[in-house]
Amino acid sequence: MADKVGAVAVLGGGISGMQAALDLADSGLKVYLVDNKPAIGGVMAQLDKTFPTNDCAMCTMAPRLVEIGRHKDVEIITLSDIEKVEGEAGNFKVILNKKPRYINEEKCTGCGTCITNCPTRNKVQPIEKTKVELEPQFKDKVTEIIRINKGREGPLMAILQQINTTFNYLPENVLRYVSQEVGYPVSHILHIATFYSSFSIVPRGKHIINICMGTACYVKGSERLMERFSDVLEINENETTPDKLFTLKSVRCIGCCGLAPAAMIGDNVYGNLSTKDIPGIIEKYKTIV
Amino acid sequence: MAVRRIELMLCTGTGCVAGGAFRIYETLEKEIQKQGLEKEISVIITGCNGFCGQGPLMVVQPDEIFYGFLTPEDIPFLVQEHLLKGRPVKKLMFTPPEKKEPVPLLSEIPFFKKQMLVVLRNKGIIDPEKIDDYIARDGYTALEKVLSSMTPDDVIDEITRSGLRGRGGGGFPTGTKWKICRTEQKTPKYIICNCDEGDPGAYMDRSVFETDPHTVIEGMIIGAYAIGASHAYIYARTEYPLAIKRMDLAISHARDYGLLGKNILGTGFSFNLEIREGSGAFVCGEETSLIHSIEGKGPEPRQRPPFPAQLGIWDCPTVINNVETWANVPVIINRGADWFSKLGTETSKGTKIFSLVGKINNTGLIEVPMGITLREIVYDIGGGIPYDKKFKAVQTGGPSGGCMPDSMIDVPIDYESLTEAGSMMGSGGMIVMDEDICMVDVAKFFIQFTNDESCGKCTTCRDGSEALYEILTNITNGDGKEGDLEFLDEVGNAVKDASMCGLGTTLPNPVLSTLKYFRDEYEAHIKEKRCPALVCKNLIKYYILPEKCTGCKLCLKNCPPDAIKGELKHVHIIDQSKCTKCGTCLDVCPPKVSAIIKVTGKEMENITGIEEPYPVKRRKK
Q1: Homologous superfamily assigned to A207-287
Q2: Over the stretch A2-53, which tens digit does the pLDDT of each residue have?
Q3: Residue A52: which of B442, B446, B498 has the nearest Cβ?
Q4: Where is B525: in which H helix or E strand?
Q5: What is the model's pTM?
Q6: Hey, is B42 helix, strand or coil?
Q7: Domain B6-105: assigned CATH number
Q8: Helix/strand/coil (H, E, C) string of B343-375?
Q9: How many beta-carbon pairs under 8 angstroms link A with B?
Q10: Distance between terminal CA atoms of chain B?
Q11: Torsion sign across C-alpha atoms B521, B525, B529, B535
């Protein structure tokens, strides 16, 4: 190991940073382990089990924590941000900004008494909530949808589906209102609203054009249909025309594989489509007002 | 019900409806009235007939004559000739592509001949919107038998002995699943029918709902009795409006007849059913994810065990089966486990519905006994590949499955043989591919699909699919490099090993199986920058053969980016710098002329498109 010179900075003291620091230090290099949190350990320290093997998280990381703490070649620098990195591979200069800890680290034994005695630590600090009011164009329909579904088991999906079909999208304020009335957190509602492909959180056109991208349609050229629609409407996939008439989308198989390639506009299915037919179809829908 | 001389069985599956089946219905009614035949002839709206490639279609009973590709204009003639004068109309019958003479009888058509109808026994025979039609075909007799003469354990025993396995793709023995749930102490228990048919290229579940919804309901009531459940959910895709409508109607009819609700058939057994709709997420077909979706939670799958049969919806024991599995149950009860277990192979019993689609002459839905060979399906039932192209592979199991090459065409199909081939049964989509399909492109298509649909919970599935997609995109763009194939193999296997739910563990299958059977195609893309199937846009050019071009200006007028130069009676030339390779020119060039070809690899080098149009030389006759 005599030929090893210099030192290494490992940025981030999570499980991978710790392992890297240990491997480096064991091979004979000086290691600075830097983290911006007050302590090393990272996310894994907050977990009970790790995915997907369900191994105990603490059992994996505790030996490494101990070893890092007593390794002669590892220096832990916590509560520090990186200000600047200069130089090139082989010769870096790292400037750190160490934040104050308001505690004399030299003297602290880590007994924890200060935490338990801190008077403001466990106080609940509520955030002021304002009541959500619905815009007049949504009010009647949304309150009705909520009224019908509120008593059911697992009402959220049905509520969102009905709002989505009524307004063609899920307006943000309506989602906040649903959260207030039905009791799900907004974050949860947004999780659902953005997960499913038939929901949209931006306004969509009057006619939604769904190009089937199932395998049967794909092998018969549905990608070319999409390109042609996109050319004719002058929008890309998932966009809406400026006149708010058409939204172009792809859909995962509408189950009309015998008619491939197929597209669905509103509830109507068009089968055996050719790129030639597309301008005509669009014109037809433009005349329906 | 009045007896009629002739009944017209008009197919109104989604496919035929899209083709205008209801317009045909109106014209038929009008014509029949015009001829004064309304007392003799009735038009019956049936569910999907299966032969979707011929739609809109109709079968005249009792003559059993099959008419396809109907248009409202044909109807007056048809009514006059066949219904009034008794002369079947030849030109509307089915004619196999290689033959001249039409095949008039439904049972004689090769597409129907080799099929064996168990689940779809009522297709094309009953009106799915009438419960009486179903009852007339022995409907709800299995339920009556179960409630009056069998204990729940008898039912489970019968299903176990029949060897029925989950038809959603996994192939878990149904009887065992029911037994696990029955032995659980916790109540209430639930059952769920999984109709979240996400596999692209498969539509049998939708078809069963549209054709014979009551058989699913009956199967579910029997299942509920067997495990001791009193409430059930049907989870259906929102993309299937017609299926949901018919199922909804069927449920309300069954309720009116006392087959659902409290005290069914006076036996004290109560059972309720409700439909829940999905909203377009492929992962919701996975059982734990589906349960989360109904509950209104984030629809990510969870670790199993505990299996839903132990801990399912609302944390109660739940049996969740596919539509086709439920639809098999009444038949097994009625005809017995011994009869059912005689069908199929050693390990896979009964029949399976496949949707036979893609590059095949007879597209449609088929029900065949397990153990049938691909050859029988593709050539006997499917009628071979259109335009005499070469058969290349069959893709089964959707994005989780793989490709079976022509070397495996004689392998009997069951759960095990498909898994061994690197594919899986899946829900039963069977996409036939001919020589014009690039396997690398297909693999890319599936990976893009799963990459999009991955819920993001497992790193391997979320990022692994991204990595696979990136490499495949490079290869199809002509930027593939040495070592890419080994990388695909390594990442593919890692994703397979380290993901949690079925989506992740099977998503590399399309890549791994095409790598196994079509490695030469991958290598042609990487080493020679050549796409043998002429699909990958960056590796092909369109070219107008000067000796064939007649200078008709058709391609020039239709070219979206105006990349074709030429004038009347002058050989047209494609400006390669403008060409977007959309292929419109190839579509519009008349088949007699067929002057446009695609080239790839070395041949592309000489095609620049900088020449100017010149007059067409008159050809010697």
Answers
A1: Glutaredoxin (3.40.30.10)
A2: 566 789 999 999 999 999 999 999 998 999 999 999 889 999 988 888 887 8
A3: B498
A4: helix B519-527
A5: 0.81
A6: strand
A7: 3.40.30.10
A8: CECCCCECEEEEEEEECCCCCEEEEEECCCEHH
A9: 172
A10: 67
A11: positive
